[in-house]
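Ticket #4471: structure output looks truncated?

Reporter: J.K.
Steps to reproduce: submitted the chain below (158 residues) through the standard prediction queue, then opened the result file.
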Amino acid sequence: MVLYVSVVEIAELAALPEAHVSGHATGPVSTQLLAIIWGTAVGVPQFIPLLFIPSATAALLAAIPIGLMGGVATAAYYDLMIRSCPRGLEGTVLMMSIGLYYIAGRFGDLLGTTLYDRFGGFGICVAAITITYALILPTILLVPRALIATADGEVPKP
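Returned output as attached by the reporter:
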């Protein structure tokens, strides 16, 4: 038996207590916004366990929770990209984002190598990526509310 669950459904389940409380305090909370915030918050510390890994086998085992922690945020970001692009250009936007992902990854490799050589260790690299991921949280506030106020499949109101 295979169970199919969307990222928004996972975010709804994870955020039930907070959505219930904040729904009474400030009105309903968008599940897309919850997916982005919770996914990013969970993804911020995802690479910290690598500081305590003693072997290559342990690193491979640690890749499972690391991938799960970052995967929820990545799915929410891709959903936001699709919502942000003009209708009919979704494939173009996804291809551009994948290309930019690899370009940014190679620049990240260069920066990581420089940090590792200059400061003498892997800890500074983990600190840099954790700080960078944490800076995504305030950046979410810049996203127009109209993009994240609709449910999956709904067209935003102009």
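Triage note (M.O.): checked the attachment and the full token line is present. The chain has one domain: 7-148.
Status: closed, working as intended.
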